[in-house]
Design brief:
- By secondary structure, the chain is of the alpha/beta class.
- The chain has a single domain, classed as Uracil-DNA Glycosylase, subunit E.
- Helix content is 34%, strand content 11%.
- The chain is built from 8 helices and 6 strands; from the N terminus they run ααβαβααββαβαβα.
- The chain has a 4-stranded parallel sheet with strand order 3-2-5-6, sandwiched between helices. Strands 1-4 form a two-stranded antiparallel sheet.
- Helix 1 crosses helix 6.
- The chain is globular.
- It catalyses: Hydrolyzes single-stranded DNA or mismatched double-stranded DNA and polynucleotides, releasing free uracil.
- Belongs to the uracil-DNA glycosylase (UDG) superfamily. UNG family.
């Protein structure tokens, strides 16, 4: 049984979910769930869309695929559930936030507050087999999330697209860079953060672009839990 697209996104994505590949993708995920542990849990698969309705999207932050260890993934890129250790990429995001906007590093990695302010925290692939990164790539999720990116690109008002790392930057071709702001750098993972993520100051750039477009800036601070 496929999880339901959140109501606000259904008219936007109805054409996409009617395509044959989407039914095949859902059948694949259902079979994976029957035979293996799959993250995130089914009710959380579309949390990025649920927490950030289409009309509220002002920033799109793109990740790759969900965290694959127990209890981490809950449908938002880079975010983990309360009580779960902050993963290395998010540790580096927090360090850059501290240096960029004076962020106080919290004791958790639960980023729902960002999604509720209009940041669509989208992974390119929305499910993963437990402990096997990228195990659900090239099964159809990328086609679906490309359609989400295209829909956001087609919004009347300008959006800030944040593309960290080579994988995300391949999506640049889906974005009208004349109308929207694109912020790119190295990925915040420990393997690449020192190659251009640290010092890139993306968070102040996002807020400057939002302010220039007459939108409210993001309050980045995450509270301790």
């Amino acid at each position: 049984m496929a999880p339901t697209i959140p109501l606000a996104w259904q008219p936007i994505l109805a054409e996409e979910t009617a395509k044959p590949y989407y039914a095949r993708l859902q059948a694949f995920v259902d079979a994976e769930r029957a035979a293996h542990t799959v993250f995130p849990p089914e009710p959380d698969v579309f949390n990025a869309l649920l927490l950030t309705p289409f009309e509220r999207v002002s920033v799109l932050l793109l990740g790759q695929d969900p965290y694959h260890d127990d209890g981490q993934a809950h449908g938002l890129c880079f975010s983990v559930r309360p009580g779960i250790s902050t993963p290395p990429s998010l540790v580096n995001i927090y360090k850059e936030l501290r240096d960029d906007v004076g962020f106080r590093i919290p004791n958790n990695g639960y980023l729902v507050k960002w999604a509720e302010q209009g940041i669509l925290m989208l992974n390119a692939v929305l499910t993963v087999r437990a402990h096997q990164p990228n195990s659900h790539k090239n099964k159809g999720w990328e086609t679906f999330t490309d359609a989400v990116i295209r829909a956001v690109n087609a919004k009347d008002e300008p959006v800030v697209f944040v593309l960290w790392g080579g994988y995300a930057q391949k999506k640049l071709k889906l974005i009208d860079t004349e109308r929207h702001t694109v912020i790119q750098s190295a990925h915040p993972s420990p393997l690449s953060a020192r190659n251009g993520f640290f010092g890139s100051r993306p968070f102040s750039q996002i807020n400057a672009a939002l302010s220039a477009a007459g939108r409210a800036p993001i309050d980045w601070q995450i509270a301790d839990l």
